[in-house]
Amino acid sequence: MGIHGALDWTIRPATADDAEALALVGAATFLEAFADVIEGKDIVAHCAKAHSPASYRDYLADGAIAWLAESRLGAPIGYALNTRPDLPGMKPGDRELKRIYVLSRWHGSGLAAALMERSIAEAQTAGHPRLLLGVYRHNHRALAFYAKSGFEPVAERLFRVGQTDHQDLVLARPLADSTESHP
């Protein structure tokens, strides 16, 4: 389990009651990852909108599935969120891994891989043919993790944060065991 022991974190399904925890981790990890890439005012504005508790409640009310990772003391430290896709390169029936975030202190602990397993299993069990995600094209750590998880580039997109567009890659992972098709 990396530098952390097996009991340092747990993962559980998230509900609308966890919206504040999801928002906190989302904003913290976005800031942590992009504070040296994106203007401060743009990060603050983006997090206020994209990582508000209301945005997570809306995702969950619209059929999204989330898993919340917590420290041994119950503090939120990461999560994964599967949603309907809204990405270039999507095909009928695809599912999107909208977010998978882990605070850097838990990098190398196996937590991100455990969240990824849940995300893949949810999409596969529901019969989706592929799982998609968008990632900043210069986030080399994330790109390596996604490649190790079986994702490959299928498209590109512009991702606006504040007043600036950033180049993202859209990655897809086939889900070979999918048994039903979704429109």
Characterization of this structure:
The protein is of the alpha+beta class. The protein has a domain at 9-129: Aminopeptidase (3-Layer(aba) Sandwich), CATH 3.40.630. Helices cover 33% and strands 31% of the residues. The protein contains five helices and seven strands; from the N terminus they run E-H-H-H-E-E-E-H-E-H-E-E. The protein has helices spanning 19-34, 40-50, 53-61, 111-125, 140-148; strands spanning 9-13, 65-71, 76-83, 95-102, 130-136, 152-161, 164-174. It has a seven-stranded mixed sheet, sandwiched between helices. A hairpin with a 4-residue loop joins strand 2 and strand 3 (76-83). Mean pLDDT is 92; it is low at 178-183.
List keywords for this structure.
Aminopeptidase, 183 residues, 31% strand, disordered C terminus, alpha+beta, seven-stranded mixed sheet
Q: Give the helices and strands as they follow along the chain.
A: EHHHEEEHEHEE
Number of helices: 5
Structural class of the helices, strands and pairings? alpha+beta
Low-confidence stretches: 178-183
CATH class category name of the domain at 9-129:
Alpha Beta
End-to-end separation: 39 Å
Q: Average pLDDT value?
A: 92
Quick one: overall form?
globular
CATH topology of the domain at 9-129: Aminopeptidase
In short:
This protein is an alpha+beta fold and 183 residues long. The chain has helices spanning 19-34, 40-50, 53-61, 111-125, 140-148; strands at residues 9-13, 65-71, 76-83, 95-102, 130-136, 152-161, 164-174.
